[in-house]
Amino acid sequence: MPKIFGTNLLGILAATIVFYTVGWLWYGMLFMEQWAALTGTETGGDMEMTTIIGGLLITLLQVLGISYILQHAGASTLATCVKICAIIALLLALPLLAYAMIYENGPRALFHIDASHIFVGYILVGAVLSFFRGKDAIDDV
To answer: Which positions ≥6 away from 62 have C-beta within 8 Å?
Structure first.
């Protein structure tokens, strides 16, 4: 199986699906009503195909970026990959999300929903990718 940034392609796809599923749980189930009220979005409607494809693309790009960072950090164990992903979330992704709250007067509650989605998603991405990296990785799937 080909590798991208030291990670089996199947791992990249699996991590993307896991992260996208976290988003579906966050915005489509757990916090749907609160998120819809904060963003002015209608709930219960069908998503447009462009939204689904765009969401998958954004998710894939984040997974690729995380995989790139893990490769340069030499990370391959579960603990190391998860730790690095938590650091990426805390020091890069969450501060980027905070711009909307600080400069656009975005609701603090919306920041909390988005930040928790990113933090949990990145942790899970690190866990999934760890199984497809290093000498003990799943290479022959």
So the answer is: 19, 122, 125
